[in-house]
Specification:
GO molecular function (chains A, B): hydrolase activity
Oligomer: homodimer
CATH superfamily of chain A: HIT-like
Largest sheet of chain A: 5 strands, antiparallel
Structural class of chain A: alpha+beta
InterPro entries (chains A, B): HIT-like, HIT-like_sf, HIT_Hint
Strand content of chain A: 15-25%
CATH topology of chain A: HIT family, subunit A
Keywords (chains A, B): Hydrolase
Protein name (chains A, B): Diadenosine tetraphosphate (Ap4A) hydrolase
Number of helices of chain A: 3
Largest interface: A-B, 34 and 34 residues
Strand order of the largest sheet of chain A: 1-2-3-5-4
CATH architecture of chain A: 2-Layer Sandwich
Chain lengths: 143, 143
């Protein structure tokens, strides 16, 4: 069993298909959305059966905030983006997951949201690995 | 000066135009988006010059999470909606604000995000007051 993995937790199939694992945080698995249009990370709390943030325990809510903001800060510094967009929607995938996306003036869909915009464009494998490595390093210096 | 209001804080003009004050929480002013297409609340931390959640102090980050989840839970219970959508984008309005929206299968734009979808449809005044009263009561029983 991987560290942080909770018995009974299974990653949603759609999340599994659209993103790749990047690293484990305390509560969440951090994943990289395989869409080269935007630098886009996803935090998935390893808790089974949770759809809404307010259904987490108070401690888990605090942990999720801490981890989300840590990731947001690292992503902002690493990409020098204009604005971080965070969101927890779950209209399509009900399993609780938090998006952290680096946005820049003039990027696809700007200034609108990324969710539901156009069609996902997977990275070339080496580019995805390079970005994942950059983010892992950026997060390692913060934690 | 209103309770919770911090010297130097001024509400962004666009937020002021699109939403109305609902109540004061500890850190945030809670506002009601004047758009009858979705039950939509906005939390605005009363801190000047903050654009990103991770630029708040750790204590303010924890407060914002607490208040956001309190509001989300009350909105979900009160509206019996399918899913809560939360988001902090700020691509148009840079002042930090957190959206909490009640979504239902088949509502305008479902399952896409509300941001940037179509044109805002203001409430009739009496309907807006009625919804604001309902939410104030729902929050009063939680706090």
């Amino acid at each position: 069993m991987l560290p942080g993995h909770q018995p009974g937790f299974e990653l949603d199939r759609r999340l599994d298909a659209d993103s790749v694992p990047l690293m484990w945080l305390g509560l969440c698995e951090l994943r990289l959305m395989d869409d080269r249009r935007w630098p886009w990370l996803i935090l998935v709390p390893q808790r089974p059966g949770i759809a809404e943030m307010h259904d987490l325990t108070p401690l888990d809510q605090a942990m999720l905030t801490f981890e989300t903001n840590l990731v947001a800060q690292a992503l902002k510094i690493e990409t020098a983006c204009t604005k971080i967009n965070t969101g927890a929607l779950g209209n399509v995938v009900r399993q609780l997951h938090v998006h952290v996306v680096a946005r820049n003036i003039g990027d696809p869909g700007w200034p609108g949201p990324v969710w539901g915009y156009g069609v996902r464009e997977p990275y070339r494998t080496e580019d995805r690995h390079a970005f994942a490595d950059r983010m892992r390093s950026a997060l390692a210096t913060q934690t």
